[in-house]
Amino acid sequence: MAGTRTRFRRWSLVALSVVAVLAVAVAGTGFWAVQRAFPEVAGEIELPALEGEATVYRDAHGIPQIYADTPEDLFRAQGFVDAQDRFWQMHFNRMTTAGRLAELFGEQQVETDVYLRTMGWRRVAEREYKLLQPDTRAYLDAYSEGVNAYLDRRDGGELGLEFAVLGVLAPDHEVQKWTPVDSLAWLKAMAWDLRGNMQHETERAALLASGIERERVEELYPPYPEEEHPPIVGGGEIRNGRFHADLGTGTGTDTGGTGDAALPPQRAAEMLAEVDAGLERIPPMLGPDSPGLGSNSWVVSGEHTESGLPLLANDPHLGAQMPSVWHQTGLHCTEVTAECPFDVTGFGFAGLPGVVIGHNADIAWGFTNLGPDVADLYLERIEGGAAIVDGEPEPLTTREETVSVAGGEDVTFTVRSTRHGPLLSDARAGLELREIGAHPPVGTDGEPADRPAEASGDGYGVALSWTALEPGTTADSIFELNAADDFASFREAARAFEVPAQNLVYADTEGNIAYQAPGTIPVRGKGDGRWPAPGWDSDYDWQGTVPFDELPVVQNPESGYIVTANQAAVGTDYAHLLTHDWAYGYRSARIGTLLDEAVERGGLTTADMADIQMDNENSGARAVVPHLLDADVSGTAARARDLLADWDFQQDADSAAAAFYNAVWAHLLDVVFDELGPDHAIDAGSRSWLVVDRLLDEPGSPWWEGGAEGGRDAVLAEAMQRAADELTERLGGDPAEWRWGDLHTLTVTHPSLGTSGIGPVEWLFNGTPVAASGGDSTVNATGWEHTEGYAVTTVPSMRMAIDMGDLDAARWIDLTGPSGHAFHPHRQDQTPLWARGETVPMPFTREAVEGGAEDVLTLRPAE
To answer: Would the annotation count 373 as a binding residue?
Structure first.
């Protein structure tokens, strides 16, 4: 969490350079300077890239639906429209994935670029393009042509207000043509943000190195509570090379193995911490990083619905950013044929052709993060330019990288790799050349070496093995998903979805519902991925990957519904290790309870799905509140405590009880886990819910000794007193007037210029604050970092509910809106609706699209 603070404060140095631009923006020419970047949404535009005509319909919220005669023209038009709405977002993302941020923002981003270049995301994307199917490459090429057709029409500030700022920061920067590799590199960024438990891996090692006993560290990462929160799939087995399962409750067996990797020496553990801190500088591409990242999705069989066909709901939980991660769109061949098979509406990413989540005329699908452990850190022994493996030297592979710096000198450094992957620890040596403070290298005895760090140095190193550093076929999968028409073709499309590994839920117009887990997931030798592994022992190497046909799959379960919410995907009887670090299942259990109640009533609709998506129950509070009610407090704290006596555990924005409880919870975590320090503070969500639940039954646990004399009950009283004092100062002396929404506010933040600390800059680029309900690990998952305050950091980044019986009755909402342009009317027009739990129509048929259109743009090929 401390790394998150550092990362965004570094951007504040950038904002100091935009004062000149602000002067223009607020002057008489300011409105023209802003408005000239707005897209043309009506009339006709001639695009030389097109072979035939394309039509773009936009509804009252500016959401585009695109029609064309060929798939190539369809994706050319999508590229053009994405660039119209979101080109700064696209450009910032590609500069990040290429490790070129210092070209935009100068010296302060050298560290970020060095780590990104060391991993080599773009290099992997370049290799990936060559592996893809010919049709996929053609679609990526066409999308790039559409983006470049937009760039050919505009320049500088005409591309967006951010480019006017860029003209001050980096006047020599030239916006290059878009390429297919720019699109593919985005998949690496998405995989990075959803990579699994790597942060837990480094935290465990750091806590152990800090002197906390291993047993106590393990208490902070308890095994998944399989009996209380059943996995997605239970009771499965592999028969004839394919996984077979029904929904079940699992066995409840302890899954908390610690692995048997040797702990690195103290100084090497510090190296792991340095690597972790360096990686924290990488801007999270799916919005501000947080333990609250997750997602909900579920499907309900037609036997329980009003239409008689399935319902599907999805709301991925990602970081809150301006503009939203998602871009709503429809992609329609004017006549659906084998040659032009696309007729799909849903959510995509600006910069990537196709639709990622949505539906076509036959099927619908949703995503949540499977969260398997697909990234391992290896501690390496380096001697004489080689890694020692099983007592023998293996030469390192090397390459040179150069980071260009706006207003500064280039930085050239060497990237070295072992059999496990790039040496992230070498990034420190490269950064030392810029006098960015780095510790000296670690010798083979675990002590600091005498000489300065350099790329050829001996000692310990930290290498990264990660599935996304090998080229894959996920781009093929996206187009295959868009064109799939039954579960068989859907599964074949999912087979190609390699990274990031996901939970896929499925529904179709024939009445089927299903679940499939795709992804490239390593099979380990020794170790379980929970601790850094010794690279010098080949027994810890990966031994291949889990075959797709052995990954979990379920069709038409007897229960009539399937829920995925980042809980354990499988029980402990499953044949392969996916991870030990699941989300702890509170959201999935709550959704299951609500669906059980809804199924009893019958006749479910998309409105019922939306109601479940907005459920605000803090299930973790059920274990804590009875103990708080027994605690000995007086004065304002006692009056505030009384609010909890009849609290329904719903964290609505106007709830006084929710305001007090969450303040108590934040202070309780600080008091109980003070030994962890600010860099490794436990999160406020499902993990801490389970840890504290267990500790409440152990009043003599050493964890209760940290903050107050008298053990558990004294600590609970201390947390309530601190919370009452804080809220009295912030919200006044009457607890009945406290409101959760006054603390728990959402300000959707511009990822590159929105955290400057300079009011005018933030006003220009950030969204308007709104009060939010929900909280961390509730179904309405508006996460917050308790070390930073109560402000929302992660959100349901969109919500979607689809009725397979009437596709035009589908509903959706985005966090912000389709436009990324400052002051555009559709930049944040969906945020107030999102905060209230409202949705807007998601038309699908051409009749419905045309009926809801407010603007029509015709794109014509050049004469």
So the answer is: yes
Instruction: Give bridge partners of residue 542 from the DSSP assignment.
Output: 524
What are the catalytic residues?
295
Query: What number is the average pLDDT over the span 214-234?
Result: 92
Residue 126 covered by a domain? no
CA distance 76 to 81: 9
49, two tokens: 């890239």
What stretches of 472-598 adopt beta strand conformation (E)? 502-508, 513-516, 522-524, 533-534, 542-545, 553-555, 561-564
Q: State which residues form the domain around 722.
A: 621-743
Please provide the size of the chain in residues: 863
Closest CA to 735 of 749, 744, 745, 725: 725
697 carries a ligand binding annotation: no
Q: Kindly give, in sequence order, each residue whose CB lies less than 8 Å from that of residue 638, ignoring residues fewer than 6 positions away.
A: none
Question: Residue with structure tokens 């894959």?
Answer: 472
What dihedral angle (degrees, nearest 10) is formed by the CA atoms of 328, 334, 336, 342? -20
329 within 8 A of 345, measured Cβ to Cβ: yes
Report pTM.
0.92
In order of 329, 636, 725, 739, the CA distances from 728 in angstroms are 46, 8, 5, 12
Enter the tokens of residue 856: 């029509």
Tell me, yes or no, whether 670 lies in a domain: yes
Query: What is the reported pLDDT for 33?
Result: 67
Phi/psi class of residue 105: alpha, beta or left (left: φ > 0; alpha: ψ in -120 to 50)?
alpha
In this structure, what CATH number is given to the domain that contains residue 702?
Answer: 1.10.1400.10
pLDDT (tens digit per residue) in 7-52: 433 443 444 445 445 544 544 456 666 788 899 999 999 999 999 9
Closest by CA position to 22, among listed 558, 761, 676: 761
| Residue 51 annotated in ligand binding | no
Burial 624-645 (b: 16+ CB within 10 A, else e): bbeebeebebeebbebbbebbe
Q: Which residue has the tokens 């106590």?
A: 216
pLDDT tens digits, 803-835 = 999 999 999 999 999 999 999 999 999 999 999
CA–CA dist 364, 812 (Å, integer) = 13
Q: Is 538 exposed, middle or buried (0-12, 13-18, 19+ CB in 10 A)?
A: middle
Handedness of CA 584, 588, 590, 596 (dihedral sign): negative
Kindly state whether residue 65 falls inside one of the protein's structural domains. no
User: Cα torsion at 239, 245, 248, 249 (round to 10°)?
Assistant: 50
Are the C-beta atoms of 413 and 429 separated by less than 8 Å? yes
Q: How many domains does the chain have?
A: 1
Strand 502-508 to strand 513-516: parallel, antiparallel, or no bridges (unpaired)? Answer: antiparallel
Rounded Cα–Cα distance for residues 177 and 440 (Å)? 41
Backbone angles phi, psi at 481, to 5 degrees: -60, -45
Q: What is the mean pLDDT of residues 579-602?
A: 94
User: Which positions ≥6 away from 193 have C-beta within 8 Å?
Assistant: 284, 285, 286, 289, 293, 318
Instruction: Specify if 322 maps to a domain.
Output: no
